[in-house]
Structures are given as structure tokens and as C-alpha cells.
Input
Amino acid sequence: MRYFHRLSYFFVPLFLTLGCSVDELRQPTEFSVVAYNVENLFDVDGVAIFSDYQQDEPGAPFAYSRRKLLTKLEHAAAVLSALESGGPDVILFQELEGDFTPESQVTDYAGFLQEHAGMTVYDMIVREWQPQYAGIQAVAW
Output
């Protein structure tokens, strides 16, 4: 009984978050979950606790740059879109930057998406780059 009780602390909030009613909890429900390691997805503001992402030498061949950010985002999109049924119901991302620049926080994700609707990530990072994009934290990309 204790084991079931402990598991309920995890699963009940999970199902409620997925929008299930109490009646639906009684029925078996299928959903897909993917854990995806983005391998240190950082923004490009140069503020990082790891020297690899501080961009002290922007011309250096191995410096973290807009091009590397774009490559990581394109790879993640390709992998996730290749999954059956257009992608999973839940994605658990690992290794996103813990952003330490408070002025670069996106707090209204719906507004952020609406503001940039019609733009691709490629457009934002390559074609229509603006300096304020450098601080958009990794979780928002």
C-alpha cells in the first residue's frame, strides 16, 4: 500500500496535467514520451558558467556561435519530426542551459511565439538576426 501511495504522488499530477478526468484515469490511456538530450543547448549571449559557451573568441573555429545553435535546433527538430504520428505527446529535454542572465528571460511563451509567428528559427538566427535574440534562453528556442 505504501508503494502505491508513493507512486500516486507522481502519476496523479501527471495525468491531471495531461488533462485527464477522474473517469479517464480509470481507463487505460496511451501516450508517448520521449527523453531527448540536446547536448548542452545554450543561448548565444556569451554568459555561461562553462568556458565553452562564453564566446570569448568569436572567430575561433570551435567557439559556440549562432551557427552551432542553429545546427542543434535543426537536429532536434529533424529527430523529433521523424518519430511516428508527428511526434510524441510529451518531450523531456535534457541539458538545456540554466540561464544566468535575468534580462534575457522569456516569461510569456505564448506572446513570444505569437510575436515570431511566420518566422523560422533559420530566419531569426541567420537572415534577420537582431542582437536581442542572443539572450533568448535555450528553453524558449
Remarks:
- The beta strands are 33-41, 90-96.
- Helices lie at 2-17, 22-26, 66-81, 109-115, 121-127.
- Residues 1-30 form one domain.
